[in-house]
Amino acid sequence: MKKILLISLPLSIIICGFSLQALLPKKQTVLNHVALHVYDLQKSTLFYRQIIQLDTVPEPFHDGKHTWFTISSSSKLHLISGAEKNTVHDKYAHLCFSVPSLGDFISSLDKEHIPYEDWLGSKIAVTTRVDGIKQIFFQDPDGYWIEVNDDNK
Q1: Alpha-carbon dihedral of residues 85, 91, 97, 98, nearest 10 degrees?
Q2: Digits of tens for pLDDT over the chain (153 positions)?
Q3: Are 91 and 151 members of one domain?
Q4: Same domain, yes or no, for 91 and 81?
Q5: Which of the listed residues 64, 85, 106 is the one where a domain comes to its end?
Q6: Rounded to two decimals, what is the model's pTM?
């Protein structure tokens, strides 16, 4: 009888543990960071800080080759220096940021003489998607494409 109790008690605890685990909410996969390999770290850091208005966060390397920005509460943008040259990037591969006012953002691009275009490539134009979201596209100092839209939902 003691043997049965000694075996069944731990087994019951294990089964209950698995059952309780199934009741707990599942943790969802989240985007931790996006890393961009850049040619001129200082220039790219200024761009993302001043134009995109991202806040920097401490990075653990302290080697002068990295800048980290907060994108959201769980996501970061990592700039990593060392790219040998700027390369051509396809617009289909882009970062997207939403802003409260696309008009105000466009004014800030105009003030900095940063050209933008719509999805089809028409200069100084805005695309309105089928869902009503307005969007523009432009490139960072390394040629990476950026979409900015007014999707504030």
Answers
A1: 150
A2: 555 545 554 545 555 555 556 667 788 999 999 999 999 999 999 999 999 999 999 999 999 999 999 999 999 999 999 999 888 999 999 999 999 999 999 999 999 999 999 999 999 999 999 999 999 999 999 999 999 999 986
A3: yes
A4: no
A5: 85
A6: 0.82
